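Format is sequence with structure; example below:
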Amino acid sequence: MIFGCILLSAGYSSRFKSPKAIAKLRNGKVVIEHILETILLSRIDQIVIVLGAESEKIEPFISSHPKIQIVYNQNYQLGQTVSFQTGLHKLSNKVDAFFLMPVDVPLIKTQTLTFLMDSFAITKKKFEIILPTYNDRNGHPPLFNARLHDEFLALKSDVPLHTVIHSKIHQTKFLS
């Protein structure tokens, strides 16, 4: 199986006052470095990082690795849906499933990614979405079957991504 990940880091971070991707964590690394290390320790085959606002501040913290590709969302001001669609355009058509990884959820563990990918593989692509949960609350990162690629691309810019998740609720596997 081939897995992809779209790491969103294109937003303004207006309430945060500086890009969230370069906020320092307690371990001394910045958020995007930490997330990329976590992803690179997993079996994810392709990582598409979507940059937009203040990309020049974020890009120096992105490691050069063959699995990593950077794409720029020129219309980042239109929001998360357009950024995700920008990443989808760069994703290989060989990918069986892909993660949505927002940069503002940095404490994802490699074990979580592995657990989600293993669950997808075991179910033989039966589900459209594999969604981690904790205390009966949906978590991150969701893993989407590649069959949803075109459905996400069809969304209008003002329609939130969770619209697709809600429409596939009966084809979603919730994991805790």
Summary: The chain has six helices and eight strands. Residues 110-122 form the longest helix (13 residues). The first strand starts at residue 3 and ends at 9.
